[in-house]
Amino acid sequence: KLKLTTQLAEKDLVLEVDKITWKQFIQQALFKNHGVFGQGIEYELLSNKIHRFEYRTDNIAFVKVSKLDADNFINALNIYINTKLLNDTELVCIELQRTDNLENLEVENSETLWKQKLIENWED
What are the TM regions of this chain, as residue ranges (predicted)? Predict the structure, then answer.
């Protein structure tokens, strides 16, 4: 479970990150930190959600990565700062949760149905 943020409350309030932007950020972070080997890390963007609160907006993504690549993947994202995707605004990624068990995945109440479907499809 990842979050993209500008780390500025007023900019995060209006920030809306779509699936394409998530993929661009991830690919650029992997390439910048691990070169072509980083781009070879396989991941699946399961879902991206925008959660609006009174004083902030959270841009969340749920990403599946193999255990072998998980450390390299998250290290690349955690140290990468992108200034090109949002017109010279720094965009960074924060790891909110890492789990091997989908049952333990923390989601908002509105996402429980999505989580249940994900778990059912995983077991098939």
Answer: none
Cα 51 to Cα 53: distance, rounded to the nearest angstrom:
7
Alpha helices in 1-124 (DSSP H): 9-12, 19-39, 67-79, 112-123
Residue type, 105: L
Cβ-based neighbours of 20, under 8 Å, separated by 6 or more:
none
Long-range contacts of 65-70 (CB under 8 A, 24+ apart): 65/41, 66/42, 67/100, 69/41, 69/42, 69/43, 70/98
Count the neighbouring beta carbons within 10 Å of the beta carbon of residue 15: 20
What are the two backbone dihedrals, phi and then psi, of residue 86, each rounded to the nearest 5 degrees?
-125, 50
CA 66 to chain centre: 15
Model confidence over 2-42: pLDDT tens digits? 999 999 888 888 888 999 999 999 999 999 998 888 888 99
Instruction: Work out the number of other CB atoms within 10 angstroms of the CB of residue 91.
Output: 21
* pLDDT score, position 121: 85
